[in-house]
Amino acid sequence: MVDFEKLEKYISIIEKGEIPTGKTFNEFAVEFYKLSKVIPLSKYLKSIERTSKTPKIMNTKKAGEVIFFSEKDDEIKTLLKRNGYKEIPQMDYTSIMLLRKVDLYMNWKKLISFFDGKGTIQEINNSLKPKLLPGEVDKLENYVKEELKLTDQEYNWFLNKFSKTILQKELEKALKKLINQ
User: Fold this and answer.
1) How many C-beta atoms lie closer than 10 Å to residue 137's C-beta?
2) Same-domain check for residues 152 and 106
3) What Rg value do the Cα atoms of the chain yield, rounded?
4) From CA 6, how far away is CA 114, in angstroms rounded?
5) Which residues are within 8 A (CB) of 100 and not within 5 positions of it... i.e. 6 or more apart?
6) Domain check: are 33 and 59 in the same one?
7) What is the pLDDT of residues 102-115, one digit of tens each?
């Protein structure tokens, strides 16, 4: 049975970016995970109209899950020891932004990189994205050319303009407004 009153209290604490007195972040995250694991949390947050901090709340739950299962996983303990951590390192509301729905090992590789100062959250997330194989690149290029009926020269021009559009958020917003008018 879910203690919704306690869940509401914990959600408020997370929204404020705080940790309950007398608890570490890891203890709090594990407790929040255990409390919320039996309900679809994102749907619950929508139903109570508390969606402004959904990523932070969902990542706190994910952190609790990662910590909970890591405590019992010898492979993770070995990985942490090899990287100089005698126990599970303390996370915080910043480091949990690295967590994704991947295996424990991959999540910990990202966290260790962050704790060791090997990059920002965005840099670490981008560095661990799988690269496309040459055959996959060819297939995608051919698909785009066929769907948009582009020559090689037009394709290169389009790719150049499209990448600028994505990188410049204001330009992207302006184009979306023009398209949707």
Assistant:
1) 11
2) no
3) 21
4) 31
5) 62, 106, 107, 125
6) yes
7) 788 889 999 999 99
Residue 90 tokens, joined: 């303390």
Q: Judge if 118 and 143 occupy the same domain.
A: no
pLDDT at 103: 84
DSSP for 7-64, written as a single string = HHHHHHHHHHT---TT--HHHHHHHHHHHHTTS-HHHHHHHTT--TTHHHHHHHHHHH
CA distance 3 to 167: 44
Q: Which amino acid is at 96?
A: I
Q: What is the pLDDT of residue 24?
A: 96
Calculated CA dihedral for residues 46, 93, 101, 9, nearest 10 degrees: -40
5-17: pLDDT as tens digits: 999 999 999 999 9
Tell me, what's the pLDDT at 22? 93
Residue 20, domain extent: 4-127
Pairwise CA distance, residues 100 & 87, whole Å: 21
The answer to pTM > 0.85 is no
Summarize the confidence of residues 112-127 as an average pLDDT. Answer: 87
Question: CB within 8 A of 147, min separation 6: which ones?
Answer: none
CA distance 110 to 3: 33
Alpha-carbon span 64 to 25, nearest angstrom: 9
Average pLDDT, the chain: 90
